[in-house]
Write a structure and sequence with these properties.
Largest sheet: 4 strands, mixed
Order of helices and strands: HHHHHHHHEHEEE
Number of strands: 4
Number of helices: 9
Strand content: 5-15%
Organism: Sphaerosporella brunnea
Structural class: alpha+beta
Helix content: 25-40%
Protein name: F-box domain-containing protein
InterPro entries: Ankyrin_rpt-contain_sf (IPR036770)
Strand order of the largest sheet: 2-1-3-4
Oligomer: single chain
Amino acid sequence: MQSPRNETTSNAVAHQGTVLPPHLPPPSPSLSALPTELLLEIGSYIAQSAHLYRLLRANRRFYAIFHGRLYKIRVQGRQRYRLITTQNMDAVRRLLANGVLDVEEEIEPLVFVESWFKCKSKMLFEAIRMHDLSMVKLLLEAGASTAGCEMDASTETLEMGKLLKRYGARVDASSTVPFALYVRMGETQPRQNTLPWEALGLTGCLYNFLR
């Protein structure tokens, strides 16, 4: 049986809830404790998909809340290159459906970032370089231009060559230079070195998908 004093103390503790020791600070407010509506409002101010991607990986709740918005943010810069190198067909389809992916905008391939030679490429050219026939077809259907692509006569017998020719890629039957695909890529900085294929009179990049 409790004394009246102990009973009063117990009732007070029960009424106040958890009582922290005096040397501990009160708990800091947590982002995950916010209501969904407020989290969505915060997410609407995130303009870069890379930042939103890091946030939704924090926990399952954030993933469920922000995953849909990830495909509604306009794709910028090297994100286009990563979509190709990771062969993320599903993401490309969803981004195209939401109208936030421009397949014709130029990109700078990461392979050239630390190089003396700086150039601009496109998603289509990088998909061709990776021999990704499905991605090439998807990009062509989305309006990617084959301007700047040339093939020799042997290339048009391949599936990739047939597809590119159907969308307007030029076939150079008179060329004496053996190549599978020639893509003209614009430079973005002056240089003094000579690219290996310039001796052949070409000023772009040679991609060979005959192997």
